[in-house]
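Researcher: Good morning. I'm working through a list of sequences from a screen, and I'd like to move beyond sequence-only analysis. For each chain I'm collecting a predicted structure so we can compare shapes side by side. This is the next one on the list. No need for commentary yet; just the structure.
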Amino acid sequence: MSRPPVPARAPQPGDGWIQCSCGRRHWGLHGAAGILVARRDATGVPRDVVLQHRALWSDQGGTWGIPGGAVGPDETAVEGALREAGEEAGLSPADLRVLSTSVLDHGDWSYTTVLCDVRAGAAVEPRPTDAESIAVRWVPLDSVDTFPLHPAFAAAWPSLRAVLTT
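Model: Good morning. Structure tokens for this chain:
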């Protein structure tokens, strides 16, 4: 059974590339943010996280990472990450509890990872909700590093996992 096509979204005010002082080009005129959502078992141990298989046409396409994107000029990084999670993965902010943030700061550009848990009683079923995703799904914590990860997410994963599990 094939899945129905997901709609492309209209450009947002923060969309665009910036040439960073680190020598690389980054997405997000006002920085970018993504959301790392954990699902915990009855004892509070994180068991799964939401990962997104990035569309082939996107930056680092074909890799797995977290839903996210450009932060708008009038948004905080947390607001931007929550918005992107809804746009790309069908995640509702009402179903998530923000735990903390982790910031990669280059001075003239930054990426904020927003770490979240699923709220008690919420039924969260991530799915592709726009053309930026090939797939979005729960992945067991111990399997994350077996996926071909977006290079920046791969570099951050060990420290992000440590935050989730402490």
